[in-house]
Amino acid sequence: MSGRFYITTPIYYPSDKLHIGHTYCTVATDAIARYHRLKGEEVLFLTGTDEHGQKIEDKAREAGVTPKEFVDRIVEGERGVKDLWKLMDISNDRFIRTTDGYHVSAIQKIFKQMYDSGDIYKGTYKGKYCKPCESFWTESQLKDGCCPDCGRPVQDAEEEAYFFRLSKYADRIRHLLEDTDFLEPRSRVHEMVNNFIKPGLEDLCVSRTSFTWGIPVDFDPGHVVYVWVDALSNYITALGYDNDQYHDFDRFWPADVHIVGKEIVRFHSIIWPAMLMSLGLPLPKKVFGHGWLLLDGGKMSKSKGNVVDPYILAEMFGVDALRFFLLRTFPFGSDGNFSNEALINTINVDLANDLGNLVSRTTAMVGKYFGGQLPAGCGATGEERELAAACAAPGGAVPFLTAAEPEKFDAELIALAAGLRGRYEQAMDQYAPHRALDEVFQVIQRANKYIDENAPWVLAKDMEANGARLAHVMYDLLEATRICGVLLTPFMPGSMDRLFAQIGAPADCRTWESAGTWGALADTAAVTKGDNLFPRIDLDKALAQLEAAEAEARKAALPAVEVEPQLTEPVDFDTFCKSDFRVVKVKDCQSVKKSNKLLRFTLDDGTGTDRQILSGIAMWYKPEELIGKTLVAIVNLPPRKMMGLESNGMLISAVHTEHGEEKLHLIMVDDAIPAGAKLC
Ligand code: MSP
User: Fold this and answer.
1) Which of 7, 22, 326, 329 to mutate to test the pocket of ligand 1 (most atoms within 8 A of CB)?
2) Span from the CA of 150 to the centroid of ligand 1 (angstroms)
3) Quick check: CB of 236 below 6 Å from ligand 1?
4) Best label site of 53, 160, 229, 385, fewest CB within 10 Å?
């Protein structure tokens, strides 16, 4: 098998940390890219970051850094975008940042080329702008007066701007969408045609003058290129189009597939092909719009505070378990509800129970009954190889199986495992990784049933009579496991390496070719029972741990120290002097019954009569640790009743917030200062 395959993910906005939704998209793309590499194709897998636009400019200003410093931190910094992809074992061949010099100059050339051809012209932009989405909308496109993508309010906008003649391409785009399989799943075609094409495609505003963080239009200073024109072009600039950084354009363009989330299908299936038509370039072969991972039925977003941190999940459950869960659970073209319970259950049922048990039972039995190596000659028979070849042939159906038990069990397992590669390939080629995984797990489940059908522990009781049969059963289990392992490699690369080591499968038994061949594993392979590939997880314990880790992460994301802003309204000196601050000594301090906030102080204020003050500081101090301390109180506040007790004054403390948590410190002064001393 040969051929080239160019696959891309959307390039991410580094405006916030990435969450599990972004991870889903990249992991899916990675599994598809790895699948094509497994098939022997020359793959170019591109990902990157989309770093311009007003949102980033605003965020950088808020953070007090330049936009470049801001994006550098999120892209290259600790636990940034690149770190996350490394952790998730993402095998991208190239990473583009739209602030890379070669991309910037290529965009200027692309913009000029479209201007020179008359497809970009200057006009006045009047309309609505959604700042968070960086999208322009016409009145008719708004949903209840708000952005149709995110539902947030839009702003009026009017300025001199460049426009792209999108309207000119309407018919060709409609044909592309309706009459070809350019855009999948098919449901997205209806969305695009009904919502955007039928109402009439308007020309697109492609430059901005109201902010500067973008690629300058070099022939008209003051204008920056609309961020989507800049971003979409990454798919060709990263190959070397209009630049000398790379030289792969002729080899890899057109792309085989752009994998994108459903909300950006419009840009990829309408604007991007029109731009390419304008540039006279071939169109990508496919755009696949996957669904969203939802939380409690809604979209994850930083502003809703409901994002799930992939770092926490990967560190707790393992990268491969997380990758697997994302692709096994949610049909790729549809939305799915993410939950920690579902994640843990999938790990327990599919990975620990089905796959993990198959591997550990099989390797343990080969160890126990055969010392880790099966006898030569116990492997696939000629008949079995023939059966497998018939089932594996393209369009090959399972022949009617006539064998009697126990050979019938062998034939069923072999037929199912031998046809697996074909069924898997079909699902993967239709961008249905969840179906491909389902096929693999049917074989895994069948293999587990095969163990029970053959009851090896019964056979082992009489090795002289049953040794050969037992060895053949073990071989079939190893071989079925191996084939599943090869096809699971794109999903869980690290764990499958460990699986292959345990069943003794060398490199030539890990190939695509070998996944379609029953009997590729040597019958005398060295089998070792290693650690459990996927240990079982205690649901309740893990949920509690996750909650604590997520709370900790949320806290850590808040500013380390925050103090209240200073008041700017002046207070005149005489008014200030009316407040009587005195040094007081704590004679006694008690908790107040039924209150978890209040402490009751008996204080020496220098007057000779004890003063009682109630203070809501029980969260920070134990009563006994305050006895004998020298504090400061304001003593001329009117008396106040709390929990039926009278408080005469207020103790002075300093407050601030640390990672979102309020901290309080009573002001304590030198014990040498006598009670009653006035503060002035
Ligand atoms: N910068 C643009 C893409 C430009 S491509 C030329 C962008 N970036 S993004 O960071 O906002 O989103 C990147 C991808 O993550 C999109 O495909 C988006 O659909 C996907 N996801 C973001 N949240 C998601 C979920 N909750 N679930 C699934 N995918 C989601 O858009």
Assistant:
1) 22
2) 13
3) no
4) 160
CATH number of the domain at 573-666, please? 2.40.50.140
208 Ramachandran zone, left/alpha/beta (phi>0; psi -120 to 50) = beta
Q: How far apart are CA 323 and CA 328, in angstroms?
A: 9
For the stretch 52-72, pLDDT in tens is 998 999 999 999 999 999 999
Of 25, 74, 135, best ligand 1 pocket probe by most atoms within 8 Å of the beta carbon? 25
> What is the CA 644 to chain-centroid distance, rounded?
54
Nearest CA to ligand 1 atom 25: 21
3-state SS record for 447-479: HHHHHHHHCHHHHHHHHHHHHHHHHHHHHHHHH
Strand-pairing partners, residue 227, are none
Residue closest via CA to ligand 1's atom 19 equals 261
pLDDT tens-place string over residues 567-599: 888 999 999 999 999 999 999 999 999 999 999
CB 115 within 8 A of CB 162: yes
* CATH topology identical between 4-308 and 573-666: no
Q: Whose CA is nearest to atom 5 of ligand 1?
A: 10
Look up the pTM and report it: 0.84
Query: 4-308: what fold?
Result: Rossmann fold (3.40.50)
**C-beta 24 within 6 A of ligand 1:** yes
pLDDT for 440 beyond 90: yes
Domain 340-515 has CATH 1.10.730.10: yes
DSSP string across 84-104 = HHHHTT---SEEEETTSHHHH
Please report, for the chain, the start and end positions of each structural domain, with discontinuous segments joined by +: 4-308, 340-515, 573-666
Instruction: Write out pLDDT tens, residues 207-221.
Output: 998 889 999 999 999
Cβ(264) – ligand 1 distance below 6 Å: yes
Q: Say how many Å lie between the CA of residue 592 and the centre of ligand 1.
A: 54
Query: How many Å lie between the centroid of ligand 1 and the Cα of residue 15?
Result: 12
pLDDT for the residue 552: 83
